[in-house]
Specification:
alpha+beta; Beta-galactosidase, Chain A, domain 5; 6-stranded antiparallel beta sheet; 44% helix; elongated
Length: 621
C-alpha cells in the first residue's frame, strides 16, 4: 500500500509536536522537583534543629530507655544505670568486694596475710570466679544471674555490728530474687541469704542449680609443694573426706553435701549450704605453671527449694586461713580441712588437736621466737617419751649382756664345715635363753613403735600449722617453707632426687640422725650382718633427699629431737643403766620358774613345728 505526500507530512508534524510536548514537560517537572526539594530541605533543616534541641533536653531519658531495652530479660527489671557497680563489706579480718553483676562476690582480701610477693592474700580474684544460678524468665527462657545487673538496695550496719548489703532482681508481676550478704565482726564467714518470691514459677522441680567457680592463685614460694598440699575437701552425708589435687579430676556426689572447699596449703575457699546440697559435681584442673594458678575448680550443685512461692535459701562463703582454731568455731566440721593426720595415720590428728596444739598455742603466746617455741615443744615431748626410750635401751642393754651366750649358741648350731647356721635350732635355744633371763624379744621394738605416733603427729603438725607461716628463725626466712642457703638451679636427675637448693636444717637433721645411728651400732647384737652394718648410713641419706623440700620448721624439729635423743641415749646408757645390776637381775630371773606368755608359747610352737618339718625333709619322710 502506498502513502501520499499529505499523510507523510501529517506524521512528521505529529512527531514534532510529541517531541516538543516531552521537552516542555520535562523542563517543567525538573523545575517542580527543584522547588519541592528546596522546600523539603528547608523543612528538614528546621526539623533537625528542633530535634537537636529536643535530644539535648531528653538525652538521659533516651539513653535510659535504650539501655533498658537492651537489658530487660523478659519481664524482669534490672539496674537502669547499665553500669556494673562495686560495694564492700569488711571487718578487721577481711575486705569483701561485691558486684551488682550477678549480685555476687568479686574478690576477698585477707588483711592479716601476705603472699610470697609481699602483697595481701586475695581469694576469689579474676574472671573465672563465679557464684550464679539459672532461673526461668517469662520471655527469655532460662537465664543465669551471673550475667544480669541487679539493683542495689543499699548497705547498712546492723545492731550486732555486722554489715549487710542486698541486691535485687524483680519483674512487674511480683516475682523477685534478693541476694543479702552479711559479714559479722571477727569472722571470715560471709553469710548469703537468697530470698525468692515466685519460686514455683522461677525454678523447675523445686530445685536450684547453683554454680560455684573458684580460682586458687599461688600464695607461697614453691608452687609445686603448694599443689601437693592442696585438696578438694567436702562433707558428704556427715562424713569428711578429700581428694588430692593431682593433675585435675572430678568427683560426683550422689548423697547430701554440707559444704565443698578448695584448701590450698594455708588458705581455704568454701561454699556451705545450711540446708545441704541434694547432689553435686565438682571438677578441677591444674593450669600451666607460668600462670601461677594452683587450681581452677567448678562445682555444680543442686539445692532443694521448699516453702511454696516465697522461700529463702541460706548459704555461707568462707574465705580465710586453714586454721584449726578458726574453723572449729563454725560448728560444721570444717576444722577437718586442716590435715593434722590422714590415711593410716589419721588417728594422729587427735594427738595434734588435743595435745600438741594447746601446748604450742600456750608457748607462742608467751615466747616471741617461733624457733624457740619449736625447741621447747620438742624438749617437752622428748622428756615425756623418755621412759619409753629408757625401756628400749634397757632391753637393748639386757640383750647386750646376753650377747656372749648368744654367740656360743651360734657356734653350737653352725656347721663346722660350711659355717651355715641352723636358724630353727638357734632360734628355739635363743628364745629359751631370753625366757630364762626374763628378756622379752619385743622389749626393744615395742617402745620404738610407740614413738611412731608422736613422730608422725609432729610431721603433720609442722606442715599444716599456719602460725608458722612467715615466721623467721636463724637463717630460715619462713618456717613454713624450706630454708635455702644456696639455690643452684635445675640440674637433671639431681633436681628430681634432691631439689634445686641446699637446706641447711636438712643437713643438720641428717647429720644428727647419722651420729645417733653410728652410736647405736655399738649396742647391736649382730653388727656383722652387711645389711645391718650399712643401714645406719642408708637411712640418713634417704632423709637428705626427702626432707630437703619440706618446711624448715619440720627439719629444725628433727635437728632438735635428734640432738635431745642423742643426749638422753648417752645419759641413760652411761649413767642410769647399771650393767652389773642387769647381769645380777638376769641371774635372779633364771632361778625363778619360767611362765611364758601366749605370744612366746605360739612362737616356740611355730619354731618346733618348722624344725620337725625340716627334719622330715632331710629323712625323706
Amino acid at each position: 500500500m502506498g502513502m501520499d505526500r499529505n499523510t507523510v507530512i501529517g506524521f512528521v508534524l505529529i512527531g514534532a509536536l510529541l517531541i516538543a510536548m516531552f521537552v516542555i514537560n520535562s523542563r517543567s517537572n525538573q523545575a517542580y522537583l527543584a522547588e519541592q526539594k528546596r522546600v523539603e530541605d528547608s523543612i528538614a533543616a528546621v526539623k533537625a534543629k528542633a530535634d537537636s534541641i529536643s535530644r539535648k533536653a531528653d538525652a538521659p531519658k533516651l539513653d535510659s530507655l535504650e539501655k533498658r531495652k537492651q537489658q530487660l530479660p523478659g519481664a524482669f527489671i534490672t539496674d537502669s544505670s547499665g553500669v556494673e557497680r562495686f560495694d564492700t563489706l569488711e571487718n578487721e579480718l577481711v575486705r569483701v568486694v561485691l558486684t551488682s553483676k550477678g549480685g555476687q562476690p568479686k574478690q576477698v582480701e585477707l588483711k592479716n596475710f601476705r603472699n610470697a610477693e609481699g602483697k595481701p592474700v586475695v581469694l576469689g580474684k579474676g574472671g573465672f570466679n563465679k557464684l550464679s544460678y539459672t532461673f526461668n524468665a517469662k520471655d527469655n527462657g532460662a537465664l543465669e544471674t551471673g550475667n544480669i545487673l541487679f539493683s542495689i538496695s543499699g548497705k547498712q550496719n546492723n545492731a550486732d555490728k555486722s554489715g549487710s548489703i542486698s541486691y535485687t532482681l524483680q519483674d512487674t508481676t511480683g516475682k523477685q530474687l534478693v541476694h543479702t550478704y552479711s559479714l559479722a565482726p571477727g569472722s571470715y564467714m560471709l553469710d548469703l541469704k537468697i530470698s525468692v518470691s515466685g519460686a514455683d514459677k522461677l525454678f523447675t522441680n523445686n530445685a536450684m542449680n547453683l554454680f560455684w567457680q573458684t580460682e586458687t592463685d599461688k600464695a607461697e614460694n614453691d608452687l609445686h609443694y603448694e599443689r601437693m598440699q592442696t585438696h578438694i575437701c567436702y562433707l558428704e552425708n556427715g562424713n569428711y573426706d578429700f581428694e588430692n589435687l593431682g593433675s585435675g579430676d572430678d568427683k560426683n556426689f550422689e548423697k547430701p553435701v554440707d559444704w565443698l572447699a578448695v584448701k590450698q596449703q594455708f588458705f581455704v575457699s568454701a561454699i556451705v549450704a545450711k540446708n545441704k546440697m541434694q547432689s553435686a559435681i565438682v571438677k578441677w584442673t591444674v593450669p600451666a605453671d607460668s600462670l601461677k594458678i594452683v587450681a581452677q575448680t567448678t562445682a555444680s550443685c543442686r539445692i532443694a527449694i521448699s516453702g511454696g512461692a516465697v522461700t529463702e535459701i541460706p548459704l555461707q562463703l568462707y574465705y580465710g586461713p586453714s586454721d584449726y582454731n578458726v574453723l572449729s568455731k563454725y560448728n560444721n566440721k570444717m576444722e577437718n580441712i586442716v590435715p593434722y593426720g590422714s590415711g593410716i595415720f589419721a588417728f594422729v590428728k587427735y594427738i595434734n588437736r588435743y595435745f600438741l596444739l594447746p601446748i604450742f598455742d600456750f608457748l607462742r603466746e608467751h615466747i616471741a621466737s617461733m624457733g624457740i617455741v619449736i625447741l621447747i615443744l620438742t624438749l617437752i615431748i622428748r622428756l615425756i617419751t623418755s621412759p619409753i626410750l629408757y625401756k628400749s635401751y634397757l632391753s637393748g642393754a639386757k640383750m647386750k649382756a646376753l650377747k656372749p651366750e648368744v654367740d656360743l649358741l651360734k657356734a653350737k648350731f653352725s656347721d663346722s664345715k660350711t659355717g651355715q647356721l641352723d636358724q630353727q635350732g638357734f632360734g628355739m635355744e635363743q628364745m629359751k635363753l631370753w625366757k630364762s633371763a626374763g628378756v622379752s624379744p619385743l622389749g626393744g621394738c615395742l617402745p620404738a613403735l610407740l614413738q611412731i605416733p608422736i613422730f608422725m603427729s609432729l610431721y603433720y603438725f609442722f606442715q599444716s600449722n599456719i602460725s608458722l607461716r612467715g615466721e623467721s628463725f636463724l637463717w630460715a626466712k619462713d618456717l613454713a617453707a624450706y630454708d635455702s642457703i644456696w639455690t643452684f638451679g635445675h640440674v637433671p636427675l639431681l633436681s628430681t632426687l634432691y631439689g634445686d637448693h641446699i637446706s641447711l636444717f636438712t643437713i643438720t637433721a641428717t647429720l644428727t640422725s647419722l651420729i645417733i645411728s653410728i652410736y647405736s651400732m655399738s649396742s647391736m647384737q649382730d653388727n656383722t650382718n652387711p645389711v645391718m652394718k650399712y643401714m645406719p648410713y642408708i637411712f640418713p641419706i634417704l632423709l637428705l633427699g626427702i626432707f630437703n623440700n619440706l618446711p624448715s620448721a619440720l627439719t629444725w624439729y628433727y635437728t632438735v629431737s635428734n640432738t635431745i635423743t642423742l643426749i638422753l641415749q648417752i645419759i641413760i646408757q652411761k649413767y642410769i643403766i647399771n650393767h652389773e645390776k642387769i647381769l645380777a637381775q638376769i641371774e635372779e630371773n633364771r632361778k625363778k620358774p619360767v611362765k611364758p606368755n601366749k605370744f612366746q608359747e605360739r612362737l616356740q610352737a611355730m619354731q618346733e613345728t618348722q624344725k620337725k618339718l625340716q627334719e622330715m625333709k632331710k629323712t625323706g619322710k
